[in-house]
Specification:
There is one protein chain. This protein has 151 residues and is mainly α. It folds into 2 domains: 37 residues; 94 residues, no CATH class. Strands 1-2-3 form a 3-stranded mixed sheet. The longest helix is centred in the middle third of the chain and has 21 residues. The protein is extended and about 65 Å long. This is Prevent-host-death family protein.
Amino acid sequence: MPTVPFSDLSKHSKRVAETIDRFHRVHVKRRDGEDLFISTARHDRQREETADVAARMIAALLASDEGVRAVLQALPVVFPWVRHLSADERHEFVQELVDATRDAIDLDVHATLHRVIVEWRATARILADPVLTAQLTRPIPEEDHGEVTTP
């Protein structure tokens, strides 16, 4: 996927349009804001359909015990860090992943899917480090430090 500076959009709009037609998606680099992606409507619809099919396929697999086993077997290939999660945590991760994927498709809310992956990867990172795991799972002293105020 090609990248073009934001300033090139107006100066070379015909060339940018030709690039989009050829590659279907262009990364636009900005100095004063978040980068952009410009894509053709057809390409965007195809990406949405791909995600929709994948989400529905996983949801359908999870409707049977054999499908659950297949998804759990595939999980380490897609997310190698799941080896640090317990069996119960892997099941919980799969369920959250499916729910968040459905939200992305049905509600056009994509941040939840990203958050689920980031949070579970962080959990796996903690569990992969025995010292950190011990620090974060040790009992909390029974001292009362008072009311916690809202930030």
